[in-house]
């Protein structure tokens, strides 16, 4: 975060210098004004950076949580009983309707996807709990604490892409093995997040209850997904 902001300032200064050197002496061009504005904007971003690693990690987790919330809400909306997940797509111009049943979920699909939704909701709960723990107990007073926060942010950043991959595989036509593979990947990421959180300073003994609960929720939903897809192996 700090590196990116610093890079923007340096690159902006280079661009501004180039425009000044290439312009006639004592002239003020539109290009120079634009470059100057870009430098000011980059400097403003630097001034708004988080004050330390704890604040930076909290900011990153908040962003991840927002993306995962959106993914969960979108899939919940699509899975409403009787809802056509492709209902916003134009009808076939010649046929007048989309008669391909591959664009709809079967009852078996819905049973499988119910457990996938459980896993996605566990992802949202995991990020929410970890974010709360970082805000309440996170410290950046020692190299060890900073390293633990960095590890937590790195693995938590894998949650959102994993949720997206699972959600994409849930749309019809559903390939149960692809769903199982993506669900297993997400479950693995969540277990790592919970393990890193549990062994870090942001999780005192008073916070271990939710870690255990979410671990059980991940295992429960993943086991149901395995049972639903066992016949596909």
Quickly list its features.
0% strand, mainly alpha, 233 residues
Notes on the protein architecture:
The protein has eight helices and no strands. With 233 residues, the protein is mainly α. The model has no long low-confidence stretch (mean pLDDT 83). Helix 1 packs antiparallel against helix 2, helix 3 runs parallel beside helix 5 and helix 5 runs antiparallel to helix 7. The longest helix is centred in the middle third of the chain and has 31 residues. Helices cover 71% and strands 0% of the residues.
Structural class: mainly alpha
Count helical runs: 8
Regions with little confidence, pLDDT below 50 for 5+ residues: none
Instruction: Tell me what portion of residues adopts beta-strand conformation.
Output: under 5%
**Largest β-sheet summary:** none
Rg (C-alpha, Å): 24 Å
Principal-axis shape equals flat
Distance between the termini: 43 Å
Written as H for each helix and E for each strand, in order along the chain, the element string is HHHHHHHH
Helix content: over 70%
The count of β-strands is 0
Mean pLDDT: 83
Brief summary of the model shown:
The chain has 233 residues and is mainly α. The protein contains eight helices and no strands.
Write the layout of secondary structure elements.
Layout: H1 2-22, H2 30-47, H3 53-78, H4 107-137, H5 143-156, H6 159-169, H7 176-198, H8 208-229
Helix pairs in contact: 1-2, 3-4, 3-5, 3-6, 4-6, 4-7, 4-8, 5-7, 6-7, 7-8
């Amino acid at each position: 975060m700090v590196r990116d902001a610093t890079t923007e300032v340096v690159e902006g200064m280079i661009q501004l210098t180039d425009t000044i050197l290439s312009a006639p002496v004592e002239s003020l061009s539109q290009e120079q004004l634009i470059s100057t504005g870009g430098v000011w904007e980059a400097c403003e971003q630097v001034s708004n950076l988080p004050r330390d690693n704890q604040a930076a990690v909290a900011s990153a987790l908040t962003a991840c949580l927002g993306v995962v919330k959106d993914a969960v809400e979108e899939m919940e909306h699509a899975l409403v009983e009787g809802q056509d997940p492709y209902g916003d797509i134009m009808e076939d111009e010649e046929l007048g309707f989309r008669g391909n049943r591959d664009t709809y979920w079967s009852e078996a699909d819905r049973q499988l996807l119910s457990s996938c939704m459980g896993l996605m909701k566990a992802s949202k709960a995991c990020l929410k709990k970890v974010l709360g723990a970082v805000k309440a107990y996170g410290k950046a007073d020692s190299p060890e604490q900073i390293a633990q926060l960095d590890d937590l942010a790195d693995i938590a950043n894998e949650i959102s892409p994993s949720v997206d991959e699972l959600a994409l595989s849930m749309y019809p036509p559903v390939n149960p093995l692809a769903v199982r593979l993506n669900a297993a990947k997400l479950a693995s990421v969540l277990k790592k997040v919970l393990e890193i959180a549990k062994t870090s300073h942001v999780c005192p003994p008073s916070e271990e209850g939710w870690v255990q609960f979410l671990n059980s929720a991940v295992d429960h939903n993943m086991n149901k997904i395995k049972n639903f897809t066992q016949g596909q192996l």
